[in-house]
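# step 3/5: fold
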Amino acid sequence: MTTEVAGRNIVVAVDESDQSFYALQWAFDHIIRKEVDKAILVTVETPITSNAEAFAIPEEDELHVEDDRKQESKSVADRAEAICKDNKVTSVTKIYQGEARGAICQACEENEASMLVIGSHGHGPVKRSFLGSVSDYCSKYARCPVVVIRPKS
């Protein structure tokens, strides 16, 4: 009698940082079961339009910056997908718009995540108090277990 193992949706938040790719590799090494689980790769494009008026950015420059952000998101997604393929893990890439912390929690809900893996950029308490911490927010508000991967020593 064989028992079939149910696959899980493991959401991994990725951006251009080395820390997020370290977290992705950590997920392969410790959580994601090859050929069973699915990696849901989430990257977030923060629109410049929310800041454009405040900084009086000309519209044509704003469009160039938006294009650059879209290209950067695609590059991050392509790199993450290649790593998944190398690790024999099925993956789906989702690119969200908006503020990262809310978008990542939304992705967990929409994709019925069994777990969220997210890297920590390791900002100190002062910087974190001004900028906020995406990983802190997600650990409080995501509706699934959250694993925060700290920077390599």
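# step 4/5: annotate
The domain at 9-149 is CATH 3.40.50.620 (Rossmann fold).
# step 5/5: archive (pending)
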